Amino acid sequence: MDILPANFTTGLSGVQPTRSATRQYATAAVAMHWLMAFAIVGLFAFGLYMHDLPLSPWKLRAYSWHKWAGVSIFGLAVVRLAWRIYNRPPELPPHMGRAERFIAHSGHSLLYLLMFTIPLSGWLMSSAKGFQTVLFGVLPLPDLLSKNKELGDMLQTVHWSLNLVLAILVAGHVAAALKHHFVDRDDVLARMLPRLGKSR
């Protein structure tokens, strides 16, 4: 379950990260992986739920929670990417062919990209629709765009479309992990399970 191609982080930082000598992921990497996973799935489900709610104070409150949760996920994604740059994951299993490795790297790179672009598109949409994002209900964040209904509607479509792409990628990610565990019988899934994460 390598996250990004080997040359990606080198290009960002100019420093070659150290490849882990162990087959396990670090405890911090495991914790961030599962925290992000549950947060993204939960926020996606909550977004589906609130979308069809009738206009009411509860719907407005739900949208507010959804927005600050999205901003929080954006912050977690920044932390996770920073960790990833300086802490390379274990090598992929040697039995994986070039095509399979390319798919794995590409899929993980797209997941990272969406972890940033989806919250950003939601923030832009909220700004264009004239609704300020207030983090945790107490810290107003600056609007990124001036109010513009047409642009807001377009960004809403973009935000929804990106979420659908994310759902497909997550489903593929889960399917690949299960394939590694039950078909290939390697340790790709096992080494990311919380009970097997080790500090380093």
From TrEMBL:
The keyword Thylakoid does not apply. It is found in: Cell membrane. Its main location: membrane. It is a multi-pass membrane protein. One of its GO terms (biological process) is respiratory electron transport chain. Gene3D superfamilies: Transmembrane di-heme cytochromes, Chain C. InterPro entries: Cyt_b561_bac/Ni-Hgenase (IPR011577), Cytochrome_b561_oxidase (IPR052168), Di-haem_cyt_TM (IPR016174). The keyword Lipid biosynthesis does not apply. GO terms for molecular function: electron transfer activity; heme binding; metal ion binding. Its cofactor is heme b. The chain crosses the membrane at residues 25-48, 68-86, 107-125, 158-178. Residues 25-194 form the Cytochrome b561 bacterial/Ni-hydrogenase domain. GO terms for cellular component: plasma membrane. Keywords: Cell membrane, Electron transport, Heme, Iron, Membrane, Metal-binding, Transmembrane, Transmembrane helix, Transport. Belongs to the cytochrome b561 family. This is Cytochrome b561.
